[in-house]
Amino acid sequence: MNCNHTELEINTSNCTNTDAYAYGISIDIGWFNEWIVWEGGIAFNTVYWLLILLISFIVLHILRWKFNCRLLTERLDGLEDPPPPVERTSHWVDWLNFSIDEEAIGKDGATFLWFQYRLIQIELLRMALSIVLIIMHFHSDKLGERPNKTLRSTGLYNSGINGTHGVICSAILTVLAWLMRKHGQHRFIRALASHDVDSFSSICNRRWLMITGLPISTTVDSLLEYLMCTFESSFSAKGIQREQIVMAHDLIDAFSYYNKAEEMLAIEKDKIINNLEFTGTVFIRFDSPSEAKATKIAITRYQSNLFWKRGQLKNNQFQPSRWTVRYAPPGSDLSWIHMKKPRPMWMTMAVWLRLAIIYSIYIFMMAAPASIVRWLHLEGHGLDHGSVFWNRFVLPTLVSFFTTKLTNWVTQQDQHRRHLTVTKASLASFRSICFLEIILYLVRMMARKPLPLLLAGDFHRDDFRLECLFFPVHGSFVACCIIVNTIGGILLNHLRFDFLLSYAKKWFTFRSEEEKNVYITSYRAEYDFASNYAELVSNFALTSIFIMIFPVISLVSCVFSILRFLSDRAALTQIYPVSQIGHNLHRESINMALKFGIASPLTLLIYRRIQLGPNRNLLDPGIVAPLCLTILYLTYLIYAHFKSRGVLPKWFRRLLRIRPRNARSNEEDEEDVIDSMSNTQNEYDPVAQIREDDLCKAQV
């Protein structure tokens, strides 16, 4: 780049090749060893994992043809008599136009696939622009590799930053915002990009109010008396009857009661159900949504004025300032097993500390898995065919599947925070997987030695260097990770690995052939939208980070995102039953993809800043372009955030000269909520449902 400022090369000579901690890398087997690590191992991983995928599908097809077993040919929907499959006329063109059958996979499944389709459109654009970058980088020669150029010559370090990179970044971000807006409008999701969509944020039961934060000593009579006295001017509160108040209890003992020996059931049953602890949450039913709305508004207004009335309070037993009042979610969305009384502050801090320790150990283990493998003496030794086959093929495959299951187990530990709804638990799992994977890869690439050594005390100031993020082989490493994660996810879905693992655990507990058949027939496999959304967004974020440094990664990401789409569409159609997830998970995925899009200009900015060294000239063209683009895109995200919430700060409206609009008040929050129209008996009283089921069984 032509400029008058001193341009330094980013020194990555002390950085560590991630492949140095791969399995069996020290074994020298001639040309085969050279081909495995050739150009970062992208070619080897592509061929190897595609062969595994092809062989697995051939074996699966033979088993289906030979045995015609239900578990291999039908959906795992848990139905004893599944409905006959609908005959659908299909054509090979459907595979080319990415058709999505919403009737077969449900609304949420279709929304998930449409999100993948929008990401594929972005990947196609990025691939086309990356080809331009590859040609431009390849024809430069800052690395001095001419005439024997390698894959490194296609990277940013062979040409330096120029105006083309800024133009390409701005084009990608513009198309990203436009496609995410189009996706939100198409699927009626109000997100950052589609903040003008008249949609809802959650599904609730508008005839029920859910109040949390009540004292543990609360009873139905005391709460009813307090509501009648405090809100006597509210016409809706006057209509509340005793039988319309349902106390939420800790059901952990009631659930575990069904897992005990049969002779103990009759003895323990009454004791468990009659001695349940109150959790501080109640559900109040109203005759109409308007009465529930009026009561909700009255309690909210009372809470807002409570600060000025503290001296006038006669009975502060119920502490209404600590209440949280909202419409009750559908009973199917409530996580009853996590409905417990509030924890003390020290226990809450202990849970957060436990999660931090588990996440840290996970990052330290996965940042250098070969060190753990060697510590467990799982690595083969010698040059015999068995050791080579184990180190090069079997061990990496086993570690890949183990890493997937370990990641799922680690993220499930977030359930100890006691999410009251399945929707919140899915959101927490989605965010955990996203941030864990991205942080893991960044830490692994910036560390100059295996993290177990750092944990053991061999730590120095320079063991983490930001410059190592731009180490040439790291782009190849991330590309290989995308290949392995994509093919691994496809195999886990289509080989029905979760069912096989669950069946293997139950094998030794079956007491009869009939019990085994009942378990197989009633098994229902739920598609994990949270982890699959997280995998998509994580791959998108990592590609955004490295697309300017190592544009070849966009070719890998594009090809395997298409393969992932075809696999997920087949899995949702043929394996998993129609499932429902919260609206918020779709919205959060769009928001996360938009936020991670800023990684591309930010990476250029960091690269140029390190390259300039001590020369901190902010007018350098290599800094001004990505800096302005980063600020502009960040401003758009802030603006979209406030617009999606329906309100803009006054200073922001003045800055953008936007006419003030009426901000939504608490009374208008109902516009974000759709009524579940659910009126199921005992929907919020599982104990009453248990007693009713037992009564029906006794009558039979």
UniProtKB/TrEMBL annotation:
This is CSC1/OSCA1-like cytosolic domain-containing protein. InterPro entries: Csc1-like, CSC1/OSCA1-like_cyt. It comes from Daphnia magna. The chain crosses the membrane at residues 42-63, 124-140, 160-180, 351-373, 468-492, 540-566, 622-642. Pfam families: PHM7_cyt. Residues 252-336 form the CSC1/OSCA1-like cytosolic domain. Keywords: Membrane, Transmembrane, Transmembrane helix.
